[in-house]
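Deliverable D4.2, example record:
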Amino acid sequence: QGGIIDDFIFYRQSDDPLTNEARGFMIVNAATKANDKAWILSNLENSGVKFQDISEEKVLLAVQGPEAESYVQQFVKENLASIGFFGHSDITVLEQPGFIARTGYTGEDGFEIMVDPSVGVELWRSLLDAGVTPCGLGARDTLRLEAAMALYGQDIDTKTTPLEAGLSWLVHLDKKGEFIGRQVLEKQKVEGVSKRLVGLEMLDRSIARHGYPVVSDGKVVGEVTSGTKSPTLGKAIALAYVPKKLAKVGQKLEVEVRGKNYAAIVVKRPFYKSQKSKVKS
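Output generated by the structure prediction step:
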């Protein structure tokens, strides 16, 4: 179908020093872990690839923000400045082995750190003592939306393709080799997609929420997938799927909120870009 099962990250590591086998980590969404595991295992049959689920043996902490490096560095032996965006490394954290990657789900600089549970508890407490502020899913969801990062299950799913979601940079059709869904995506690239994920800015004093209808010329033409009032920008923003012909920046639309239509306009994504340049690998 060419749809999206998940948007996890695969980290290629150095070969196993004992067996010389290639190895790597997959960091998946907790909510889709069971489905991801079942799908991966079903496609690894007779491949010779070994799969090990260590999710119950590790914890993952994400430290995000412009000053993330200075806070995390206090507890890590290795020089974090040498790790570029999407770079990763084995590290020593609080004198214990761990894994770190310079990435996150907020649009800001930051790190994801994977360690044993006991080390995770100690690191959590150490970060709080150092002045790091904990945040919940609501704050994280607002940040990722300001950065126009897709949320699986809302903005992307098995019924949407990477080309429709604006994620074509992750699909390497220019490279040889088969992959599941390739033919569907090649056809979409040639024929064009029928819908696109766009950024919306509300022009009236209203907030577009997930599931709200998008209207053009009095007809429902799409649906909001994510929406909120951006505290950083001071305005209501949203992501929505609309027909390709209505997806251009500057296109005026409406969003139905509790039975009444409110003006909106298609804007360039992301809504907010970090003021700190991302460190290059």
